[in-house]
Amino acid sequence: MVKAYLRYQFDKSFGVVAGVRCGSEVLEKGEELRRRYGNRVNLAVSPAVETVLVWNLRSGSEVARFVNDGAREAGEVTSLSAYGDGTRVAAGYADGSIRTWSIVESKLEGIFNGHVTAVTSLAWANGGSNPEGETLFASGSADGEVVLWDPAAEKGRFRIHGAHSNEITALRVIAGHIITASKDGLLKIYEISTQSCVQTVVGHPGEVWSMDVGNDLLVTGSIDQDIRVWKLVDATDRNGIKLTPLGSFEREGSSRCICLRFNKAGTMLLGHGTEKSIQLFHVRNETDAKKHRRRRRARREAKSASNDQEDQPAGDLELEAVDFFHHARSVKTDYKVRSASFLENQQNLRIMVRYSDFDSSVARKRAHLRNHSVYRQVHMHHNLLEVLEIGLGHGGTLKSVMLVDKPGDRGDIRSLTMTSDDSALLSLSSAKTLKVWNPVTGVCLRTIETVGYGLCCKLIAAEKFVVAGFKAGQVQIFDFSSGVEVCLAETAHNGSVWGIDVPSSDDGFVTCGSDKKVKFWSLAEDSNGKFSLVPKRILELNEDVLCMRITNDSKYVLVSLLDSTVRAFYLDSLKPFLTFYGHKLPVLSLDVSSDGTMLATGSADKSVKLWGLDFGDCRKSLRAHDGSVMTVVFQPDTHMLFSGSRDGTLKYWDADKFELITEMTGQRSEGRETRPSIRSI
Questions:
Q1: What sign results for the dihedral spanned by CA atoms 143, 145, 151, 153?
Q2: Are strands 8-14 and 25-26 parallel, antiparallel or unpaired?
Q3: d(CA 631, CA 624)
Q4: Which DSSP state fits 306?
Q5: Which residues contact 673 (CB under 8 A, 6 or more apart)?
Q6: Residues with Cβ within 8 Å of residue 607, at least 6 apart in sequence
Q7: How far is CA 84 from the centre of its chain?
Q8: Residue 423 DSSP class
Q9: How many Å apart are CA 628 and CA 632, to the nearest integer?
Q10: Which SS3 state, helix, strand or coil, does residue 103 take?
Q11: Mean pLDDT, the chain, integer
């Protein structure tokens, strides 16, 4: 008889505020957005893996979520560009496709396929419409090609093959021309009417990482600390524009300049590299720039006179970059900055900042048969948006106005656990938070502050309490319904608490740690209603304990040791039962099937081994992944096995036939935890 398997496909990801591959943008408020949200509300659009999110920066709430059925195949969002009045947004994906979304109607407007590599840059013509009144946008890809698109006709106008020899990092569509910047170190101007290059600008020491245009000034950032400036002027030999160099000025920091952004009026410029700071510059108009040039010339003449040198000619100083740009303020941040944007229509200067240190998300895959789900943690980058109000001038203040971080974990998710009825999913992160999620909607129901870097968590006492273990050796218990701390053991272990499990025979729980001990605990309540942790038994071993599992019948406890072995003990007497040899490197995860007959181990040697629990025989060794196997878990009541690895893949195995059923790709980074649902959703 042919055996039928569950087929899993991607369902959704949640817990993401802002993704990795591209920056976030603040939407300009046109008449439609003002009528809908008012003058005091600013909206921002951010990438969230394969989804595009729209955030209300006043309330910190999610306004819209744009994802379609084919988005998983399209990959991550790699570029974003908002239409001039903020009513629509274009998103480029890793597979080379582009999708335009209506923010007002919250629907997909069009899909454009024209690139074979990731779309790395997008720009609407003149912020929306070109001189002929048509709404166009341009896209650049990782292979150096540029395409001009017509959204109304849902097709491309033309393609520029080999526009650059490397990835296009930025582009702008201005006055019938496309200006492009690339990692090949060049700036180019293409005339739309003739579809030809009319100017190539050299002079950068390496890759051009950022570019923006404000009024008639164009600025670029490269691999050094200099910001280079060009002036857009009318070309005398043709009906078009050209760039004339104005020199450069320095910004703080020595890293590459990854973001340059003018405000809407072109009177302010912000820029930053990969460090923890943002620089703000005043932009002078041409009249004030000429006044600054005269003062600069006067200082030069005074210096020449003091050195008994001949006076320089009066007209020898031309307008330069330093005449237009004046450093206003440097803003120090707690994290490395990924992108920044100005908030318009504010009485005070405000900017939106996205950081880039750590971040986490939970991905869910749903099976078509029996409708089970698997929840997968993926490690990415930092996961918040912050609005800063900045005071300029001497003694100017810096204030955080809004922090959008509650809808996602701000650190690496280290542990997942689910309730028995699959109604709630818990995630414990390194950012000192324990979050409770609705797994169907992906909404964060509660955020609980913890004492430290979380490593493992479990529901105990008929799911009345949540117990969490931490890197510094603490064990903390919370009331699951209210999120209130019940008790805290500061020195539960003398090292990291690597694992927690719950025997089915009592209301206690078991922890293991790097102090070579497995400890058995009970939760005691005194006459005043206060709880405390009482140690009952201790199993001492010769090596650090990396993970632990108790069989469903509470007969055995299995522990993984640093010497690459797995040992099984009788739970009642703690006497040795079996020792499992065979892995070349330590076992990082293990699980026992529901019937207690099979053990699965995943190791840093990239293999998954299947063992019999009756005699300890190795039934099969599977070369499972290209990286360390971080998680193995059996599907409840079956011998179907999930394995996750640092290589970013999640695989589904038949442990009876030792066959790979399917590989679920698309994870954005290493997976640390996999948790299948117990019941149908």
A1: negative
A2: unpaired
A3: 12
A4: H
A5: 376, 377, 413, 414, 415, 416, 630, 631, 644
A6: 583, 621, 622, 623, 624, 629
A7: 26
A8: S
A9: 11
A10: coil
A11: 85
Cα–Cα distance, 278 to 550 (Å, whole number): 51
Q: Which residue in 376, 368, 420 sits closest to 636, CA to CA? A: 420
> Regarding beta strands 119-129 and 107-113, do their DSSP bridges make them parallel or antiparallel, or are they unpaired?
unpaired
- Tokens 């304990």 correspond to 545
CB burial of 487-520 (b: ≥16 within 10 Å; e: otherwise) equals bbbeebbeebbbbbbbbeeeebbbbbbbbbbbbb
Q: Is the pLDDT of residue 534 over 70?
A: yes
Residue 437 to residues 154, 426, 444, 451, 670: CA-CA distances in angstroms? 39, 6, 4, 20, 21
Show Cβ contacts of residue 530 under 8 Å, excluding neighbours closer than 6 positions.
Answer: 487
Q: Are 559 and 543 in contact (CB under 8 A)?
A: no
Tokens of 677: 């649902």
Q: What pTM was computed for the model?
A: 0.82
Write the DSSP string, 207-240.
Answer: ---EEEEETTEEEEE-SSSEEEEEEEEE-SSSSS
Whether residue 150 contacts residue 125, with contact meaning beta carbons closer than 8 Å, is answered with no
Residues 431-465 pLDDT 10s: 899 999 998 888 889 999 999 999 999 999 888 99
Q: Residue 295: helix, strand or coil by DSSP?
A: helix
8 Å CB contact between 43 and 404: no
The span from the CA of 451 to the CA of 130, in Å, is: 55
The predicted pLDDT at position 353 comes to: 83
Contact (Cβ atoms closer than 8 angstroms) between residue 71 and residue 93: yes
Q: How far is CA 286 from the centre of its chain?
A: 41
In angstroms, the CA 625 to CA 650 distance is 9
Nearest one of 561, 463, 556, 477 to 512, comparing CA atoms: 561
CB-side exposure of 608: number of CA atoms within 13 Å? 31
Burial (CB count <10 Å: 0-12, 13-18, 19+), residue 614: exposed
> In terms of Cα–Cα distance, which of 215, 311, 312, 231 is closest to 267?
215
Average pLDDT over residues 113-129: 83
Q: Which amino acid is at 518?
A: V
Q: Which two tokens stand for residue 374?
A: 């698997």
pLDDT tens digits for range 469-507: 999 999 999 999 999 999 999 999 999 999 999 998 777
Instruction: State pLDDT tens for residues 279-295.
Output: 999 999 989 988 988 88
pLDDT value at 375 more than 80: no
For residues 413 and 429, is the Cβ–Cβ distance under 8 A? yes
Q: Look-up: residue for tokens 């204030």?
A: 399
